[in-house]
């Protein structure tokens, strides 16, 4: 809403380090702000505080040993990263997972996507100063964690998928709990919309704030809900359907302007679409084995390379694996969506207020350790 | 005021006892309010709040206070040491004075001054000074930003606050609390002055830096705002002062708009006045807490726009209408 004011005076500029330790930087991100009063003249995100060397680690481990790493790259959608890595290795080696495993993976991945979006919903509103929705979201999210805990034995870093299947089969209790969760989540939409979406203060804080339009998004490689909020219906599950996503009937929610309110709406609608996918997958769930028996623990893909892109909770994520025929990948690169999403901030944050910077930073849903890897 | 000088004996005794009572009450009340806030927050957020220390965690804040007293008082490097130490004292002293004139009951006004209302607003403005001093002296950009915001916000909201109060004063022709309350024996002023009451309450929320207007200490933006660098009991004093301030603005709202110690429409139902007064005040405090745990925070410029473009014109209009009605009807 900078146009409401006269042109900032541009005297007495000073810099403010937003982070690396700050309540709202979602991990260890530092944004170097040059301020004129409360106006941001320049914003420069500084990354790399959480570098753990995941890609290099990948070169020194077997393919299966790298699996736990994948869920730690983006700890909020760990299962989606497991899933993608599995698919990449399967594509490289030519392993075909059984039908049932494919469905189980999709169900769990979508549950993980919902849990990631729920966490975003809560923390975003906390950035805006509303503390309460956070606890309601965590209450809902707790259900997902319990469900996934039952099958994977873990609540956050799942490592649930295996080349050619999953570690454990799902049972009736899982199906029952998942159906109950979907029902429960749907009953919550009304509260969320009444208390948050229709809240006047919320609307004023998000409408026309942090507009990432189509041009800007494409220029910076912004993907995921942020790109869809700008009106581009680009979702890897639709444009290049992998696994069994082409068998489900779901929509790609898109926004109009690409402001924070659109991004909020897109994510909320995406949760509903994920619910639809889960329901259809549960209905179609075939019987049969849940993993390929004849896959060696130490897979040895043939010489070659593979680039596999999939849709994580934050956008287009990809693995680029180069195999030299040994059990260890020659190169293991991860394309993370948050990098592109974060770096359009240099342009978006200009001429906004400090309070908006927090709102925008929250609305693009970055996970900084994912960028640092 | 001349009475205070000429009266001797019993009057001095009354003053001393009153002061001691004020000190005890304001401290206990602040501790209770902190507990209440945590309980309200807890129950709004699907949890219980403090439960461990004492029945339903009632002693939690006392234990927290002891913990704060035991903590090291850190003065940041290159901070303005004198001002840094003075600020918490400066914020806490003025919040005690308004208790002297608050009308808790017909017989429970320590000093019923003829400028009681003015005194309260004069002293409550002091807290801005303390916040500015504290934020400036901390040598921290977040603290300074918080202090700047606080000053701008308080200047913007004091005007509609006083204007809305003036329309009540016009009706009673007095700044004296006993007379303001007595005038509401039949009908509370909230029914005669609904606009003023709403404006007053919004401004009071902003004046006490409460959500959704808590931008001076917006924790997701400014870490902790003006008290970022304060530790131990220095932070505790800011904290207690904030809650005492909340009590004062709600008590003033009760005496100006909700009939003070009177029951509704002249029916006291045999309940003593002080109970009515406290019940109404705590209800308003509950509403303040309810706000905080329900709304997101407004942005700084929206806050200022709201005050200068909506509240001030509206309260002026309200004052004008009140004056015209009083003159011609």
TrEMBL record, chain A:
Its EC number is 7.1.1.-. It is found in: Cell membrane. It catalyses: a quinone + NADH + 5 H(+)(in) = a quinol + NAD(+) + 4 H(+)(out). Pfam families: Complex1_49kDa. Residues 127-373 form the NADH-quinone oxidoreductase subunit D domain. It is an enzyme of class 7 (translocase). One of its GO terms (cellular component) is plasma membrane. GO terms for molecular function: NAD binding; NADH dehydrogenase (quinone) (non-electrogenic) activity; quinone binding. NDH-1 is composed of 14 different subunits. Subunits NuoB, C, D, E, F, and G constitute the peripheral sector of the complex. Belongs to the complex I 49 kDa subunit family. HAMAP family: NDH1_NuoD. NDH-1 shuttles electrons from NADH, via FMN and iron-sulfur (Fe-S) centers, to quinones in the respiratory chain. The immediate electron acceptor for the enzyme in this species is believed to be ubiquinone. Couples the redox reaction to proton translocation (for every two electrons transferred, four hydrogen ions are translocated across the cytoplasmic membrane), and thus conserves the redox energy in a proton gradient. This is NADH-quinone oxidoreductase subunit D.
TrEMBL record, chain B:
It catalyses: a quinone + NADH + 5 H(+)(in) = a quinol + NAD(+) + 4 H(+)(out). It is a multi-pass membrane protein. GO terms for biological process: aerobic respiration. Keywords: Cell membrane, Membrane, NAD, Quinone, Translocase, Transmembrane, Transmembrane helix, Ubiquinone. The keyword Oxidoreductase does not apply. InterPro entries: NADH_UbQ_OxRdtase_su1/FPO, NADH_UbQ_OxRdtase_su1_CS. NDH-1 shuttles electrons from NADH, via FMN and iron-sulfur (Fe-S) centers, to quinones in the respiratory chain. The immediate electron acceptor for the enzyme in this species is believed to be ubiquinone. Couples the redox reaction to proton translocation (for every two electrons transferred, four hydrogen ions are translocated across the cytoplasmic membrane), and thus conserves the redox energy in a proton gradient. This subunit may bind ubiquinone. NCBIfam families: PRK06076.1-2 (NF004741). This is NADH-quinone oxidoreductase subunit H.
């Amino acid at each position: 809403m900078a146009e409401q004011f006269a042109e900032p005076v541009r005297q007495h500029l000073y810099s403010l380090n937003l982070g690396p330790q700050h309540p709202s930087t979602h991990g260890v991100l530092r944004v170097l702000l040059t301020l004129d009063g409360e106006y941001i003249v320049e914003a420069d995100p500084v990354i790399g505080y959480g570098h753990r060397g995941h890609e290099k680690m990948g070169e020194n481990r077997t393919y299966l040993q790298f699996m736990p790493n994948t869920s730690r790259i983006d700890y909020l959608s760990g299962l989606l990263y497991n899933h993608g890595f599995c698919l990449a290795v399967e594509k490289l080696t030519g392993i075909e997972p059984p039908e049932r495993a494919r469905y189980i993976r999709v169900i769990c991945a979508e549950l993980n996507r919902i849990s990631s979006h729920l966490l975003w919903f809560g923390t975003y509103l906390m950035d805006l100063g509303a503390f309460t929705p956070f606890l309601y979201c965590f209450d809902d999210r707790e259900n997902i964690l319990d469900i996934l805990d039952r099958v994977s034995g873990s609540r956050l870093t799942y490592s649930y998928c295996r080349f050619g299947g999953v570690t454990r089969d799902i049972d009736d209790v899982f199906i029952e709990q998942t159906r109950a969760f979907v029902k429960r989540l749907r009953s919550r939409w009304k509260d969320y919309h009444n208390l948050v979406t229709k809240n006047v203060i919320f609307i004023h804080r998000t409408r026309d704030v942090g507009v990432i339009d189509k041009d800007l998004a494409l220029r910076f490689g912004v993907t995921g809900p942020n790109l869809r909020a700008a009106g581009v219906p680009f979702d890897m599950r639709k444009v290049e359907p992998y696994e069994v996503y082409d068998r489900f009937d779901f929509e790609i929610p898109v926004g109009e302007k690409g402001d924070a309110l659109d991004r909020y709406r897109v994510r909320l609608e995406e949760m509903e679409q994920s619910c639809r996918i889960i329901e259809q997958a549960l209905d179609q769930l075939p019987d049969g084995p849940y993993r390929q028996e004849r896959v060696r623990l130490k897979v040895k893909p043939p010489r070659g390379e593979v680039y596999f892109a999939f849709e994580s909770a934050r956008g287009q994520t990809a693995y680029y694996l180069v195999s030299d025929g040994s059990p260890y990948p020659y190169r293991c690169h991860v394309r993370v969506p948050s990098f592109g999403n974060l770096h359009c901030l240099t342009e978006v944050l200009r001429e906004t207020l400090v309070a908006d910077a927090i709102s925008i930073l929250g609305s693009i849903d970055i996970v900084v350790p994912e960028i640092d890897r | 005021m001349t009475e205070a000088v000429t009266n001797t004996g019993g009057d001095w005794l009354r003053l001393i006892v009153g002061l001691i009572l004020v000190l005890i009450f304001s401290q206990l009340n602040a501790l209770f309010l902190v507990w209440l806030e945590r309980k309200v927050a807890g129950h709004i957020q699907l949890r219980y709040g403090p439960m461990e220390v004492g029945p339903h965690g009632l002693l939690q804040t006392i234990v927290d206070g002891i913990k704060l007293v035991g903590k090291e008082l850190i003065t940041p490097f290159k901070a303005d040491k004198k001002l840094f130490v003075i600020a918490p004292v400066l914020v806490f002293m003025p919040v005690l004075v308004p208790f002297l004139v608050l009308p808790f009951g017909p017989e429970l006004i320590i000093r019923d001054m003829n400028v009681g209302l003015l005194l309260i607003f004069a002293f409550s403005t002091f807290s801005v000074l303390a916040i500015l001093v504290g934020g400036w002296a901390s040598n921290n950009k977040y603290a300074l930003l918080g202090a700047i915001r606080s000053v701008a916000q308080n200047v913007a909201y004091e005007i509609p606050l006083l204007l809305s109060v003036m329309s009540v004063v016009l009706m009673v022709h007095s700044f004296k609390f006993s007379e303001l309350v007595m005038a509401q024996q039949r009908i509370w002023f909230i029914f005669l002055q609904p606009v003023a009451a709403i404006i007053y309450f919004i401004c009071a929320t902003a004046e006490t830096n409460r959500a959704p207007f808590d931008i001076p200490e917006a924790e997701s933006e400014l870490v902790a705002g003006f008290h970022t660098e304060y530790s131990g009991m220095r932070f505790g004093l800011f904290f207690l002062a904030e809650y005492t301030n909340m009590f004062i603005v709600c008590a003033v709202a009760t005496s100006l708009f909700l009939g003070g110690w009177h029951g509704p429409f002249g029916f006291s139902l045999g309940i003593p006045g002080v109970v009515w007064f406290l019940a109404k005040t705590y209800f308003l405090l509950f509403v303040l807490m309810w706000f905080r745990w329900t709304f997101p925070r407004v942005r700084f410029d929206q806050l200022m726009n709201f005050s200068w473009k909506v509240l001030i014109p509206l309260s002026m209009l309200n004052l004008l209408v009140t004056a015209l009605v009083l003159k011609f009807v």
